[in-house]
Amino acid sequence: MARKLTAARLRYCGLEALIDDAMLIVSELVTNAIQHGSGAQVTFTMTVRDGYLHLAVHGETPGRPVVRNAPDDAEHGRGLFLVDCLASAHGGTWGTSEDGTTTWCCLAVPGGQS
After folding, report:
1. In 3D, which of 28, 18, 9, 114 has the Cα closest to residue 78?
2. What residues have CB less than 8 Å from 13, skipping those under 6 apart?
3. CA nearest 89: which of 8, 22, 4, 9?
């Protein structure tokens, strides 16, 4: 559902160029919050400001996620690596809140649209 919402909102805002990568990022962040969290609620926010698309997923479980080097034959463990690569490719970055309950990602908006 978060992926569909992301695509629809970006299409509405005229940011089609970011749809595929933003959907993948949202999918990875929401999946991590569900799989590794122990809270009952996961919240997803998406905003465009200051020339960046800001994506954030908040879970109720503190703890900082880290990028792992998954073995070639592993079926899991590449999510944050993908987020990191996609953020970098779009002139952005990613990180976590102080307490680790929110993981966020910023992508530069083509043409600096706010």
Report:
1. 28
2. 48, 113
3. 22
Q: In what order do the strands lie in the sheet with 93-96?
A: 43-49, 52-58, 102-108, 93-96
* Tens of pLDDT, residues 36-73: 777 778 999 999 999 999 999 998 777 666 666 655 66
pLDDT reported for residue 109? 95
Mean pLDDT (whole number) for 4-9: 96
pLDDT at 65: 66
Q: What DSSP character marks residue 82?
A: H
The token pair at 28 is 């990875």
Contact 79, 72 (CB under 8 A): no
Dist CA 114 CA 106 (whole Å): 13
| Mean pLDDT computed over 23-40 | 87
CB 66 within 8 Å of CB 80: yes
